[in-house]
Amino acid sequence: MSAKRPAAVVVLAAGEGTRMKSATPKVLHTLCGRSLVGHVLSAARELGPEHLVVVVGHAREQVTAHLQSIDPAARTAVQHEQNGTGHAVRTGLEQLAGDGVHLDGTVVVVCGDTPLLTGETLQHLASVHENDKNAVTVLSAEMPDATGYGRIVRTPDGAVREIVEHKDASEEQRAIREINSGVFAFDAKLLIEALGKVRTDNSQGEEYLTDVLGIVREAGHRVGAAVAADHREIAGINNRVQLAQARRMLNDRLLHEAMLAGVTVVDPATTWVDVTVTFAPDTVVHPGTELMGATSLAEGAEVGPHSRLTDTVVGAGAEVAFSVTQGARIGAGASVGPYAYLRPGTELGQKAKAGTYVEMKNASVGEGTKVPHLSYVGDATIGEYTNIGAASVFVNYDGETKHHTTVGSHCRTGSDNMFVAPVTVGDGAYTAAGSVITKDVPPGSLAVARGQQRNIEGWVARKRPGSAAAKAASATRDGVEPSGEH
Ligand code: UD1
Ligand code: CA
């Protein structure tokens, strides 16, 4: 049974995150295609809160700009000095009050650096809070090593009594392995009241949010804990080692879901996916593959090994091997690579081919058309069932402006062609190998645009007498095959 929507979620993200050793604010570091705070917001949004406020402080311009781009409905509250988690929540609530929001119901508090926290766990917290009619419910977890965390101190009958910070805890309390995840559900009114009573007489001289729990309990209200099913979910990120561990866990979670939904992941250890990637059943992902952004794989698509696809739509049954693609649409049954680079605006039609050492950009390639080898296709439209010869270049740049090339359907262009844009090759036309096509080619014609071949007989014998080449030539002329030995 799911809980009522909370009145507000407060996300704490004002801390500096010095241990990241980074010019980028901690909560803007990314894993699986989303920032730390982005993951937290997306879990929080699953609760459907009426209001959501993020408390920002350190690097607030950058953080605020990011929040605006990922969740424009989120409000921000500025905490100028980081005087503790209690002070941070107070700052968030004062912002809401200042905006004329009157809170009635539940306020959920989460930290901006716990990207593995799921909406499901937040729902669990909210349900326990509501069903037990608590004034405060803390999301707790049993830690193998609780060092550094606030400990959940329970009464002999098992009720939650208070949270004691590691630095303020006795030896006996430090032996407790049940810890405060930093995530809470509060009754809004009691929270606001209690925050006014929080003192700073602790080892860090800060306003602790955790003190609210004891204050509310002493005033005669119910406090409780919802224990997280998996302690790894509430892990906060403080340094890049933890960031890598969290990325691995989230990636494993995403691949696990994909595999259960019918995706063959040949090597989960070397396959990396963003949260925004979608798969149809019966797709195959080979080792060493990164799928990023809004990439989607339709049924039967096969991707990898050793490929990176960003914002790429892969059609049913298409294959991509040893390639890098970005902002491309790959048609059903199309083939990409090995060693292709598809850049933004590439659209491969059904059963089209971008083969080996082929780069494409802003190019529309029709159904069944093949660009098999060693070519650059930029700013081009190619019709259906055309074959582009090996080592062709669509010369799109005159040094100042890009120009477009159009090649029709059922064309056969020769190897080593340059198409100097703007230029058009009509339907069914042929071009000769080695041609530099600077003028339009009418449909059905053959274009030859290269120097005529001239053979100067006897040149080697006259100009390079006695050379191996001359001997080889003379032996051939005498009807004897030259031997490499003599
Ligand atoms: C806090 C809890 C601790 C809990 C742990 C879980 C308190 C007093 N302690 O400790 O019980 O086990 O989280 O990770 O609450 N923040 C602000 N403004 C501030 C201070 C903090 O926005 O003035 C934000 C930080 O950016 C961070 C979060 O609040 O996202 C937690 O703060 P942090 O300093 O990391 O608290 P801990 O010492 O880890
Ligand atoms: Ca922390």
Describe this structure in words.
Helices cover 21% and strands 29% of the residues. It has a 19-stranded parallel beta sheet that branches. Strands 5-4-1-6-10-7-11 form a seven-stranded mixed beta sheet, with helices on both faces. With 486 residues, the chain is α/β, with parallel strands linked by helices. Residues 12-15, 55, 79, 82-85, 87-88, 111-113, 149-150, 163, 165, 179-182, 208-210, 236 line the site of uridine-diphosphate-N-acetylglucosamine (UD1).
Summarize the structure.
The protein is built from 10 helices and 37 strands.
Sheet/helix structural class: alpha/beta
Question: Beta-strand percentage?
Answer: 25-35%
| General shape | elongated
For the record, give the distance between the C-alpha atoms at the N and C termini, rounded to a whole number: 92 Å
Regions with little confidence, pLDDT below 50 for 5+ residues: none
Helix content: 10-25%
Number of helices: 10
Overall pLDDT, averaged? 96
The largest sheet is: 19 strands, parallel
Q: What are the distinct ligands in this entry?
A: uridine-diphosphate-N-acetylglucosamine, calcium ion
Q: Using only CA atoms, what is the Rg? A: 33 Å
How many DSSP-defined strands? 37
